[in-house]
Amino acid sequence: xxxxxxxxxREIYTTLKADLANLPQPAKPTTSHLPANTTAIPGxxxxxxxxx
Length: 52
Fold this sequence. Notes:
By secondary structure, the chain is an alpha+beta fold. It has 1 helix and 2 strands; from the N terminus they run αββ. Strand 1 (40-42) and strand 2 (49-51) form a beta hairpin. The longest helix is centred in the first third of the chain and has 20 residues, at 2-21.
C-alpha cells in the first residue's frame, strides 16, 4: 500500500511540475507605488509608513 501511495504522489508531482512549467510568467510588479522622490520610513506598526 505504501508503494502505491508513493507512486501516486510521484505521478501527481511530475504532472503538476510539467503543467506549471508551461504556464506563462506573470508580469513583473512595479517596485513601488510611491513617487521616485519619496522616502518611506517604517512606522511603529507593520504596514504603517511615514512618507516624506
